[in-house]
Amino acid sequence: MKKIAILCLTLLCVLLAACQSGEQAETSPEDTVQAFFTAFETADYQSMQNYCTEDCVDTYFHDGDVFGMVWAKAENIQKQTIEEEEGFLVDVQMETAPTSALYPETETSFYVWLTQNASGDWLVDSFTTG
């Protein structure tokens, strides 16, 4: 009886290990945008960078703002697919940086464009205005 229990336990461990050895599920574009704006609400620029391409960080992240905004809270996020590009039209409440062209506005809308990396993860790549 003990041998059967040990055999069953060993088999269970092997099966569980096999299930976990697969690759992690890819992120979805929606998950990426949600996580990005969750961090943006609190101006957590370091966390935001985890959801961005290197080009995005180099282009849009500045000392104390991202794309002219100190922080931004997503009020509405609508998926957009234009010419096979994955994007979202996002309405935000925000605090603009004094150097922003939108200063002192507190609301705006803009597009967030994503790209999929070699690992299958979706990352924010650029922003455009309407």
From TrEMBL:
The cross-references to Gene3D superfamilies, in alphabetical order and at most eight, read: 3.10.450.50
Keywords carried by this UniProt record: Signal
Instruction: Tell me if Lipoprotein is a UniProt keyword of this record.
Output: no
Q: Does the keyword Kinase apply?
A: no
Which InterPro entries does the protein's record reference? NTF2-like_dom_sf
Q: Which SUPFAM superfamilies match?
A: NTF2-like (SSF54427)
- Signal sequence residues: 1-25
Segments crossing the lipid bilayer: none
Write the protein's name.
DUF4878 domain-containing protein
Organism, scientific name: Butyricicoccus pullicaecorum
